[in-house]
Amino acid sequence: MNDSYEGKNGKVKVMYVRSEDSADNKPKKPSRRPNNARGDTDRSHRRDDKRGDNKFSRRDERGAGKSSGRNPSRSGSSSLRDNDSEGGNYSPWKTISRPGDEPLKEHDGITGKSQIDPEQLRRQRLEETRIYGENACQAMFKNRPEAIVRAWFLQEVTPRFREALKWMAANRKAYHVVEEEEMVKAARTDHHGGVCFLIKKRVGHDAQTYLKDAPTKDCVLALEDVGNPHNVGAIMRSCAHFGVKGVISPDSSVLESGAAVRTAEGGAEYIQGIDADNFAQTLEQFKQAGYTLVTTSSHKGSVPLAKAQLPEKMVLILGQEKDGLSDSTLKQGDMSIYIGGTGHIESLNVSVASGVLLAEWWRQHHG
């Protein structure tokens, strides 16, 4: 059947003819198409198996000279038709999109999910820690801003962190101004003080590294089995106040915990951890370098602090409140002192005792 005829005005009109072969051999596919101004929304769009028999192709061939260069949109759709058709199976009304059942590939645009190596993530978490508290974070930013990875702020503290915010923006460090609920999640505590930093941990020195640059007058603190972060934080605060830079601990990472850093109120930035995998051996290294090992005990033979002449270079060794220092550590010491008092209680809190002892060392050698 002829698929075209001329109207009264001489223009060519197109009549779409159903192909019996294609209707029998091809399944119907629902397609979404826009309403056409010609009113052909009810027409069925069928295709022959061969591209050369496609009625749309025939129409395009006739009107190629007229449409070329005058209607960019029609030229663009014709181009898409040529690229996408396979054996003539193309409808100009078909919406070109990703099939709904096609699986998304990893890293396929913004909809893909990136895969992180679990081992790499584990190492990264071991290298990072969260600190919080206004004074602690201000001191940290002042001393080593390059260690900041990410930051969270409550709106009310941002005026006091104006310089930090400017620096982080200029250095492409991520920060977030958040509500209370999100801040608690970020800091993992209610005692966040309105700010939290995710930072790179400092690496603890070994004894030899610390001793290379040790001053002539130097007091180093050694903590045996002192792990409570609030006690450790209070001790670091006293150390910073009285000029103690080195703290020996079997696990120097306790000095980097969020609770310890917050309790230190900025003092943690002035303290260097000294790793002591073997506590007795590390003490011996300091002894060989000219330090006097001073233990704290109320046992017989100890000297009251008020009568003691503390050495210029000493390692002050503190133990946990409950049991104090181990017997082996007491034997390793060169002198033993105690803090006199009423005797109504057995001992002082370890952080309080450290403050009293360090104050006396400072008075004797720097006061």
Automatic annotation (TrEMBL):
Residues 1-121 are annotated as: Disordered. Residues 130-205 form the RNA 2-O ribose methyltransferase substrate binding domain. InterPro entries: Alpha/beta_knot_MTases (IPR029028), Ribosomal_eL30-like_sf (IPR029064), rRNA_MeTrfase_TrmH (IPR004441), SpoU_MeTrfase (IPR001537), SpoU_subst-bd (IPR013123), tRNA_m1G_MTases_N (IPR029026), YfiF_prd (IPR016479). SMART domains: SpoU_sub_bind. Pfam families: SpoU_methylase (PF00588), SpoU_sub_bind (PF08032). Its EC number is 2.1.1.185, 2.1.1.-. Keywords: Methyltransferase, Transferase. One of its GO terms (molecular function) is RNA methyltransferase activity. GO terms for biological process: methylation; RNA processing. Residues 18-27, 39-64, 99-110 have a biased composition (Basic and acidic residues). Residues 67-80 have a biased composition (Low complexity). Coiled coil: none annotated. One of its GO terms (cellular component) is cytosol. PANTHER family: 23S RRNA (GUANOSINE-2'-O-)-METHYLTRANSFERASE RLMB, TRNA_RRNA METHYLTRANSFERASE. This is Putative methyltransferase. The gene is rlmB_3.
